[in-house]
Amino acid sequence: MEPRTKEIIVNVSIIAVVIVLCIVGYFLFVKNDAIKAALSGSDTAVIDETVAAGADVTKTVAQIAELNKAVEDTNKLLSSSTFTDLRDFSVTVPKEAIGRANPFVSTEWKLKALAREKAAGKK
């Protein structure tokens, strides 16, 4: 082989090795990180969503437990002897007629008061 051909083969081989190393490095470091970032981004979104759902469930369970305790306390109060021994002291108010047949006629109490004034004035 000529020295020039040998030199060309060595240079092409070195360039090929450098290109292969660049491609391997890209797939090992850059591409792998991009895939990991894409996967971890979706994983963290799923994890965050799961944590938020878990917090909502925990809050709902706590509210239900609080309501259950309130119902139990109400049942205890309503079934206690202190509550059942209470007496009803309410008074029923009779219905009264609204308005008068003739609003321009003086009422009976006013007529009696006028009669008393006249009788007192004559003395």
Write up what this structure looks like:
With 123 residues, this protein is mostly helical. Among the domains are: 1-40; 42-86. It is built from three helices and no strands. The protein has helices at residues 3-79, 81-84, 108-122. The longest helix has 77 residues, at 3-79. It is rod-shaped and about 165 Å long.
Observed structural traits:
0% strand; rod-shaped; single chain; mainly alpha
Gist?
The protein has 123 residues and is mainly α. The chain has three helices and no strands.
Task: Give the CA-based shape.
Answer: rod-shaped
Helix content: over 70%
The number of helical elements comes to 3
Radius of gyration: 50 Å
What is the average of the pLDDT values? Answer: 83
Structural class by helix and strand composition: mainly alpha
Topology of helices and strands:
Elements: H1 3-79, H2 81-84, H3 108-122
